[in-house]
Amino acid sequence: MTTDTAVAAGVKVPGTTLAREATELIRDTTSELIYHHSRRVYFFGSLQGHRRDLSFDPELLYLGAMFHDVGLNEAFHGSGRRFEVDSAAEAKRFLQAHDVPEDSIRRVWTAIALHTTPGVPEFMEPEVALVTAGVEYDVLGIGYEDLSAEDRAAVVALHPRPDFKNRILRAFADGIRPKPQTTFGNVKADVLEHFVPGFERGNFVRTILDSPWTE
Description:
The chain is an all-alpha fold. The protein contains ten helices and two strands, in the order E-E-H-H-H-H-H-H-H-H-H-H. Strand 1 and strand 2 form a beta hairpin. The longest helix is centred in the first third of the chain and has 20 residues. The model has no long low-confidence stretch (mean pLDDT 96).
């Protein structure tokens, strides 16, 4: 049995069996891009948690981070659901199979399902808030100066991000192109508008005005 002893910027990967098996699953079923991104989300989320003086469960944060993008996999292209929900459901199945308590499962599910819904997770449980904080840090650079250059460098040295901006955008596009209806009202509509010729994003105002109600 291998043990994950990764440490960056003073943050350790949880040494539990659950974390180890999650690591192996994500490493085996996702791309190198998603694997390294997911690990950085954990490290950056943890660092933001320490900076904000939040009390959080590192294992739950790790599980949320590791599973948050698994719904982009080809296996879920025909689901008809938002990739965030597919990711959350996959995490839930994994955790239920390991007899994790329901409240912990709920936290991980919520953290994953809401990680592209800005303005909400930050007011919820720390694990929910910090998965989003880690994603926003790694993908969008939100709060970039909150962490030191040394801490950033330590995380990236462990999990490099070559051409990450372009590669993650392509991964988003590939993951959601087969189900464009799932982008209504969320940030991923921007991705398809940029990458898919002829894509027309849903319009909230037109949806109201064109509804079957007479007034």
